[in-house]
Amino acid sequence: MLKVKELNIIFQDRGKPETAVKQLSFDMREGERIGIVGESGSGKTMTALAIAGLLMRKDVKKQGEILWEGKNILSFHNKELCQYRGKEMGMIFQEPMTSLNPVKKIGWQMEESLRIHEKFTKKERYERAIAQLMEVGLLDAKKVYHQYPHELSGGMRQRVMIGAALICNPKLMIADEPTTALDVTVQDQILQLLKKRNKEKKTGILFISHDLELVQKLCERVIVMHKGMIVEKGLAREVFTSPSHEYTKKLIASIPKVERRKGDSKLG
Amino acid sequence: MDKPILEVKDLRVSYKRGKEVLNHVSFQVKEGQTVGLVGESGCGKSTLAKAILGMAPIQEGEVVHYSSMPQMVFQDPYSSLNPAKKIGWILEEPLKIQKKLNKEERREKMEQMIERVGLGTAFLERYPNMLSGGQRQRVAIALALMLDSKLIIADEAVSALDVTVQAQILDLFLKIQREMGVSFFFISHDLRVVYHLCHYVLVMKEGKIIEAGNVEQVYFTPREEYTKTLLKAAGIED
Ligand SMILES: Nc1ncnc2c1ncn2[C@@H]1O[C@H](COP(=O)(O)OP(=O)(O)OP(=O)(O)O)[C@@H](O)[C@H]1O
Ligand SMILES: Nc1ncnc2c1ncn2[C@@H]1O[C@H](COP(=O)(O)OP(=O)(O)OP(=O)(O)O)[C@@H](O)[C@H]1O
Ligand SMILES: [Mg+2]
Ligand SMILES: [Mg+2]
Fold first, then answer.
1. What is the pLDDT of residue A213?
2. Domain assignment present for A235
3. What CATH number corresponds to the domain at position A177?
4. Which of A54, A60, A184, A246 to mutate to test the interface with B (most CBs of B within 10 A)?
5. Regarding beta strands A221-226 and A33-38, do their DSSP bridges make them parallel or antiparallel, or are they unpaired?
6. With contact defined as beta carbons under 8 Å apart, do A16 and A24 qualify?
7. Domain that residue A143 falls in
8. Which residues surround ligand 4, an ion (CB under 5 A)?
9. Residue A100 within a domain
């Protein structure tokens, strides 16, 4: 379904060009769940944006190919891009405020891709939006529908964005750190929802996270990135239990643990 | 360590359209202490942080500051960094306003701070949109630390960071606290991080503080069912 071949992403907006992603290759079959983990700044978001067809800026040089059902996304025309974004592919962004429109109510944003891609009546759109808000755990959906982004908490905004990305039943869901603002309980709820979509609708999931434990809960395969390159890939379970690359080992070792202390080490 | 730096007394907050968000909230942060605030999404944590800074509509109650205004790391770093300015400019601005340091001293301080959060000095020349999410979050942390404020309020300040970088930032907080006696009010949904960093913890549910106490005590002998549920969900049980 998706084939990334020797992708390079090079920034040239300042003096010397800087390579953010180097020789990245991987395949994704229909309905597969793949996780990408890696250090802050390792190129996860840039990879996601390129696959989402959102890195079309001229000053960012892209080499290699990203094949979606055989066609190269990097050479899509506007019309093809529009069909791909929102309908075939849904994207959840790392920072909700950058993708939600601050002056539009939540209802409007939820229905945006339905307006573009589907022929629903106003009432049908409303019903879909409410059901989708409920599904991401916003139980006060009718109230949220009429609120503005700034009137929601960070975690609520993140869930609105997840809902908006899922509403058209895309074939591929790219989720960039979708649960950073969520507590464990809500996080689990979102993972269950993604799993359900994956199972029922065969939605492929590309899940980007700095949280290896979370990735292990959701994904079959995992890719570990470091400094723009893939340093390790394999079955999530195996990478987690027997990591081979130094960075992956460090990542697993630094997970904070809660062990009862004698006295208080933080004082003095 | 016993002198309060911040005192919140019987605070009630509600927004224009809607019901009460904070309901009779009271607590203290003492000098050199880190107080954690946990609770589920939408319970009122960010609202409390904003109310402390005078950015939320207080209906009743009082916020008393015993030092200069605290610095805040906002939950959404992107909206707190001016997109039209380079990181160097953004970090230098509060120092310029403060007028204590000359140009070289300001430069030195900026360079030190950007390195302490794990970014090289080359980042000073970049604009916010040329950074990754975690890099922006670290710039927001550096910015809050620039003025040597006595109290730092951090709202989900490390949630976008992978554990290796997160550990580095938590160590930085502990170090700054040891060196300068800074206090932190630390909001997070990550109970493990809160355990690692905080002395005292507040558990919030639907705008009320339902349990408060020493971290060890709350984590290992929780009184409230709700606290037990939160701990259990986070995989912390003894
Ligand atoms: N416009 C730009 N010019 C130069 N470098 C850039 C630009 N935008 C991003 N970068 C750099 O590209 C690298 C990859 O960024 P990316 O956003 O993909 O990281 P990430 O893996 O998503 O990190 P995080 O976990 O912190 O979100 C980073 O080092 C970043 O500083
Ligand atoms: N400006 C506003 N106007 C109206 N309601 C608001 C406003 N800001 C927040 N709220 C509401 O107040 C409640 C608490 O929000 P707050 O941002 O304090 O939650 P939080 O505990 O920080 O949650 P999260 O963990 O998701 O960030 C939510 O129901 C939210 O919708
Ligand atoms: Mg990112
Ligand atoms: Mg919040």
1. 84
2. yes
3. 3.40.50.300
4. A184
5. parallel
6. no
7. 31-53+76-253
8. A 153-154; B 45-46, 75
9. yes
CA of B207, closest atom in ligand 2: 14
Closest-CA residue of chain A to B21 = A153
Q: Which amino acid is at B101?
A: L
Count of domains observed in chain A: 1
Token pair, residue A103, equals 């002056």
Residue B238 confidence (pLDDT) above 70:
no
Domain contains A63: no
Complex confidence, ipTM: 0.91
**What pTM does this model have?**
0.93
Probe site for chain A from B30, B34, B35, B41 (most A CB atoms < 10 A): B41
Least confident of A112-116, A260-264, B122-126, B151-155: A260-264
Q: With CB atoms and an 8 Å threshold, state whether B160 touches A153.
A: no
Residues A71-89: pLDDT tens digits? Answer: 999 999 988 998 898 789 9
A201 CA to centre of ligand 1 in angstroms: 32
- For residue A10, being part of any structural domain is answered with no
Q: Using one digit for the tens of pLDDT, what is the confidence trace for B123-174?
A: 999 999 999 999 999 999 999 999 999 999 999 999 888 888 999 999 999 9
| Nearest residue to A3 via CA among A82, A76, A55, A71 | A71
